[in-house]
Structure formats: C-alpha cells, structure tokens
Structure prediction request, 480 residues.
Amino acid sequence: MDILQNFINGVYKDPVNSNYLDNIEPATGLVYGQTPDSGEEDVALAVEAAEKALPQWRIMPLEQRADILYAIAQGIESQLDELALAESIDNGKPVSLAQAVDIPRAASNFKFFAHACSQFASESHSMTNTATNYTLRQAIGIVGCISPWNLPLYLFTWKIAPALAAGNCVIAKPSEVTPKTAALLGKICLDAGLPNGVLNILHGTGSSVGAAICNHKKIKAISFTGGTTTGAAIASQLAPQFKKLSLELGGKNPALVFADCDFDATVEQVFRASFANQGQICLCASRIYIERSVYEKFKQALVDKAHALKPDDPSMASTQMGAIVSQDHLDKVLSYIALAKNEGGNIIAGGEQVQLTGRCENGYFLQPTIIENLDNSAQCNQEEIFGPVITLQPFDTDQEAVALANDSQYGLAATIWTTNLSRAHQLSEQLNTGIVWVNCWLLRDLRTPFGGMNHSGVGREGGFEAMRFFTESKNVCIKY
Ligand code: NAD
Prediction:
C-alpha cells in the first residue's frame, strides 16, 4: 500500500489528525494507496515553515534562485518514466501521454520560470522636469496554489514555478484525486537544493485543507485552477479578506470548422482536441460547429475515427485512450449522455461504458462519444461535461458560427479551422474566449497570456502575467 505524506519544512510528515483518504487507480477501480486528509493544523505548520523560510528566499540573488528552479526541472526530467507511470496510475491517462506531455511540460514550467525571473523587469514613468516614478514588483509573501486532477503535475507546477520564481514561499495542494506526483515533487525539490519551508505540499480535500489554505490570514494570494462552482465559492470566501485571487475555471470550447479547411489535417486535429486525455482537458473542444457543405463528410470522418479509438489499459505503451478519472466522474459523464438522449440528441458514436477484461475489468472506461441534433441551448451544449463527449452542429455563415460559439457562459478557448486568413483574423477578434487557436490546438508558447473570460475565470497565467500576479507592485515617486 502506497501511503503518501505531506511535505512540510523539507520533511515528509503524516497529517496531524492521522486521517487518510483512499487513493484509487481508475484503470482498475482498486484502492492502491492512501492520501493524507489534512486539515487546519497542517496548514498552520506549513505556514510556520514558510514564514521562517521567506526572509532568505525573497532576497536570494536571482541567479541562485533560477539555478534551483532549473535543477528542479532537471530532477523532473531525470525521473520522467517514474513520474509518467505514477501519473497514469493515479489519473487513468495513457502512460504514453504522460510521457510525451504531462511530465515534460512540468519540467518546462520550472525551466521557463527559471529564465523568466531573470528577465522580469518593471516600469519607470518620467514626469518631465518634475519627478521620476519607478515600479517595484515585490514578492507577496506566502501564497497558496490549488490545482485539479486532469493534468496533475503539469498544472501544479504551472502555479508553483512562477510563485517561487517571484520570491514567494508556497503552500500547495494538489487534487485529492491525483496526489501522487505532487508527493514525489517534494523529494525532487529537496535534491535540487530548494531551502526547507519554501515549498510545502499538503494533501486532502478541498472542503477541509483547501478551505483552510484559502482562509489562513498569512496566505496572501490564492492561485486556483478547477471547476467554476468551486471558483465561485472561493471567490466569495476570499472577497472580504481582500486576497489576490487568480481563477482558471471550466470551459465549453467551440471548434469552428469551415469548408475551406485542410480537411484531413482538421479531422485529425479536431478529433485530438476532442478526445485527448479522455476529453478531460479544460481546453478540449466540446462543441463542434461545421459548415453545412462539409457537415456530412466531416461528421463521418469523426465517427470513423471514434469507432477506431478503443479505450484500453493506460499502462500499455500502445494505448491511446485510458480511463475516466473516477467512478463519480464517469457517472456524471454518463448522466449527460442520458440527458442528451432526453433532449432529443442522436448518439452517432459511442455512448456506452466499456468493460475490459483482466487487470482492468473494474476500471472506468467510456467510448468516445459523438452526439448530433441538439439545439445550442440544450444543457449538453451549455454545461461542461469534461469527458470524451462532443456535440456536432451545422452552420451556414461566419456570423452564425460566431454567434453559436459565443452563446455560452464560458469563454476559455476556441479553435478556428480555415485557410482563409482574413476570416481567421476577423473571427479571432469576435470570439469571446481568452485563447483562440487557428488551425492548431494546444500549441503553447509559455510566454503568452493563458486564461478565460466570463465563467472560465478571472486573471491570466503564463509568462510575465504570472510573475505580475505573484508580485505586489509598488510605485515610488521621486521629486527632483
Ligand atoms: P474542483 O473544483 O473540484 O477541484 C479543484 C481543486 O480545488 C482540488 O484540489 C480540490 O480539492 C480543491 N477544492 C475544492 N473545493 C475547494 C474549496 N472550497 N476551497 C479550496 N479548494 C477547494 O475541480 P476538479 O474536478 O479537480 O477539476 C476539473 C475542473 O477544472 C474542470 O471544470 C476543468 O475545466 C477545470 N480546469 C480548468 C483549467 C483552466 O486552466 N482553466 C485547467 C484544468 C482544469
């Protein structure tokens, strides 16, 4: 039995209350370990450690801080296979995906911010013949980072790396559903020379340790990625405390496919955007709008690919589609498929749970599912399903496509598939999303602002946006 511990002040520790949660492998449905079910007492210990570490960490010369972050990246890279396997066991994602995407990106996050902290500059504003202003951007102090289960180490480090790079000490909480790689990160940080107390990793549920992190008076900012409902609860909790808050929330991402697209490449990419990681990426396409003249042909190509994609044991190198993260989540996704039928939708591919044999006979597998004939106002087109389920709708004009895409409370990411350059530019301006990809999906430059509009969040991560979030700006005005 794999029993995880919190990582506080550079030491692995049991939770003060000695309570644990079961850790379940989604591919088998079996308990394979336990995770601390931490509480306020553990947050207090972590904050105490962070307070002690902060004075030295925030004044450490940038080159030295950057070297440590770089060494953490190298530590992640040197354990790529072990971390990828851990991620696959914990989350159900294909091990090949964790090897190719999750773990390399976790290393890139640390490398990127190791460089970014030495390039981060602040502004100066001169008042001719009167005064000069310059802006200091100083570490906030102790900050909290809370992340979800879908890209566990990838998103955990996407917050921690800039927070540390900016000179903060961090109390971080991974999802209780996928805690394993976060637990392994503690040792990697120690080996890289990160001083004790600079990063503290606490495990447990959102309602217990997550809420305690958000409520602790000495934790001055919270960077949160997760569901929109959770984000709303945290926002209302933090508003009277006047804490800085960044929210990266859910999505219901439109893909706009035009008749002039590069057909084969678009089928390939839209399919990947729909079903990668079992559709459990906040950026996955879930509403596919197809120009009417190519609707039938495009639909058939997607359906053929869906029939060919078979969920299988994620630990096998050949597997392209793994398990859904938990029984609860599988039930939620299945309930949306049932709802789609009630709403008048036709299930034209998938729709059924998959029963594997052998090791994975009790795992949480679901066929890639394609639904058509649903109105844009249907719940399945308005609510985030966050699984391998997409809907198809035809459109006739550019303006109709934009109107359908924008008819959503969410606004995270959109994709446009066309060879018409001016249409691509025009529509990019008109779409209400924080990210627009044209003829590509999930192509990431870590310098770019990342985040959503409306119910998809508040604030941006990435590049200097993240460095700005994790610092307080202070203007100094010097009169001549
Ligand atoms: P979730 O909101 O249930 O949980 C996210 C994290 O918040 C977990 O660590 C959880 O323990 C914690 N948490 C829950 N309640 C809390 C509370 N009251 N106080 C403090 N912490 C609390 O989300 P999830 O199910 O883990 O993740 C899936 C969601 O995340 C989807 O909606 C998805 O779209 C979203 N997501 C968004 C992005 C993005 O960048 N916009 C990226 C990935 C996932």
User: Anything to note?
Assistant: The chain is about 40% helix and 25% strand. The radius of gyration is 23 Å. Residues 95-119 form the longest helix (25 residues).
